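Hello,

Our lab assistant flagged a job as stuck in the queue for most of the afternoon. It eventually completed. Since we weren't sure the result was trustworthy after the delay, we are filing this so someone can double-check. Below is the sequence as submitted and the structure that was eventually returned. Let us know if re-running is recommended.
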Amino acid sequence: MRSAFRQIYLLGSSLRGGASLLVALLMLAACADNELILKGKREAVLLETSSLVIDDGAAAEFGAIGSAITNQDAGHPGLSAGHAGGHLTLETPLKRVWRPRVSAPEDDVVSLPQPMISGGRIYALGADALLTAFDLESGDVFWQFQVNAPDSGLFPGKAGGIAVNDEVVAVHAARNSLSLLDVKNGSEIWRIEHDSPLAGGPTLIGNLGVVVTDIDGYVFVYRLSDGELVWQSIGLPVDTVVFGAPSPAVSGAELVLAGAGGEIAIHNIDNGQLLWADSLATRNIGSIIRSAVAFDVDGIIVKERSYPSKSKLLYKSASGGTEHIKIFQVSNVNTALKYLKTKDFWVSAFDVSAQKDFTKHEWNGKNILLFGSEGYGIKAKTLENADFRFKVNMNNNIESLNISNTVSVVCHHIFQSTK
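-- returned structure --
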């Protein structure tokens, strides 16, 4: 007879869980002054390298990348809008010429965006949303621009992004606005406000446009001349975003979007048409399906746009599990939760800020286990539908488990406790 315990899982979230792992480190030791030093000839076991030497044979294998060049411009991460900087070299040894300071993040989960170099200037953005243009040679300040109020909140990830060419600077400070500035004096040409904080980009599309993404996975392409929206698309779902998003890349007539979980999507840059998409992160979903089947879960709810139903990798990692469980694809999670609550389901949300250990709960009746997106957790509006909030206890030696491991821990405990 089947247990009365029924569960439906929503995919997502990096939660705290427990595991132990022993790691042995092999260290090198030397003789101290107060130790007995044996007589005899010493033979060096570590070679000191004072200069870099190019292996001609290895270098010949990469003849297609061209001759090494010294670069003085890097207007985008990866040096260019296509992240194709070429074969670069630099003169060593390096020496410090000047050292200015910008505002540092208050939290370890926030990092500063990469400074950009163009036209003899360096553009750096601090965690206080202050953009500064420095002289490359002297470090003198040309101009500064306050992108947003310095006290506004930051999501985990990069504290913004910068893209620059000979005429303009596009910038966002991981808040809700995107600004285009005059490269000469930092004056604002236009500003666009968004519903959610921005994440990836900005990336300039030559002198025609600029593209950014937000934390919900939406893609926005604006005309450079006046900030007019050219097109927007869903892009990569928020479930794939872990601590920010890579900067979009532009190659010819194509826009390339990459998610931190291994996803990639290619759009037509003129109209936003999706040309193709794939994901290496489907192993995570497949592993969750496999665990759900093993521990008698009745079904899985996923966002319709987040579920790669045609992915061969998903089915391979699920090890046949998709044949033994119902998978419900919904367009709106909140609507689905509200409906299921009218059918006597209890909604239990797993959230890192929760106080109650899920193993102390009596798992009876019909239950929905709710997991949010990795990195950002469960949205506040979705949490309003939760009847309970739980955490997974673990020690302080590790930050978090990934979603598939967390689901396995929770499923196994409930399976055992409801036998």
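-- support follow-up --
The delay was a queue issue, not a problem with the job. The result is valid. The chain has six helices and 25 strands. The longest strand covers residues 130-135.
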